[in-house]
# Entry
Amino acid sequence: MKVLRFNRNTLQFPKKDFDMVKEGVISLVISGVVIVGLSALWGAPYRAAVTNQEIAQKSPILIERAALGDLDGSGTIASYGPPYNNGWNRQENGVQSIGSFHPQTWWGTPYPIDAAKTDVLTPLHMLANASDNQQLQSALQTYQSASVKQQQTWDSNLSKALKKANVENGNVVIPRGNYGPVALMMNDELSLAKSGMLSGILDRSSNQGVYRWNVQNDLLFLQGKTLHQIAGKINMKGEQWGINHDEQAYPGPWWLTPYTFLYQIPPWSTSSAGDELAAYTIAVLFAILLFVPWIPGLNKLPRLLSIHRLIWRDWYKRLESDNTCANCPLRESCRQEFRNSKQAVVKSGFAPACYQNGSNS
# Structure
């Protein structure tokens, strides 16, 4: 007997025209009107950027600690490692590694920074020369001509003293001690930051031309404990879900919630390579999402969940009201939208309306 075979791949449901450009334009216009309207009503959530001038005026001890950390190598950037430098005395504290896998080091140091020279010594030399400050010039000469051991002694003594320091009239007051020229240098670094000129000098060091678009060194000066203290006061640290919420009661980048969630649970929250682990985890999850149509089992989820039936419920409702599946050989499967690979066989010459032409056999 000559028959025609039909299966779900030859199914021909009624079609519904869809103008994607029209739908996109309408969505864009509606979103734009809502965003502009809400912004006009409540304003945009905006907070002025944190600057080292602001911190110097409000928390001068933080600036001196940051500068001293850059000078003695205990600062975050001073000992970071690639892509900024090779650490402090070859000790790299910022390199994240899973076993021997650390791609952070593959490209070397494309953004070189010598924290002691860039953040402290060069700015102070410029200040001393510009203001003809003989006392500061002498202090810099004394420090740079001293032995490494002597420098470490002065740096260490001042680092301990800053833990007991007080602020009086905007100045840092420390107990008497053997700080060599370092105390004077840090006081002048603080004055430079208060004036706002430190940012200009740091921007100058990261730009070779007239136009200053690269603010790397200015941003990195605050990196580490300094920024963490500032961020903690406004609930913007990683463990405070700071990535995906705004400082105020405004919605933030909610789409980063899965990424932020990883930082709240072990091993991502406890590993020294937490950033690297989180990046790889999100990459794997994204790859799974991208290849869902080809992954056995997962590719059946759309039909099992049937979310598309909810989205296009009006179309399915019309399908039922028109009784489209009534004349189909596999009418029950048709109503279930062919959840399996069943086939139907009909005599040649019989052409159900719900199918395209079947195959002869």
Observations:
- The first strand starts at residue 3 and ends at 7.
- Confidence is low (pLDDT under 50) at residues 357-361.
- The CA atoms of residues 44 and 174 lie 43 Å apart.
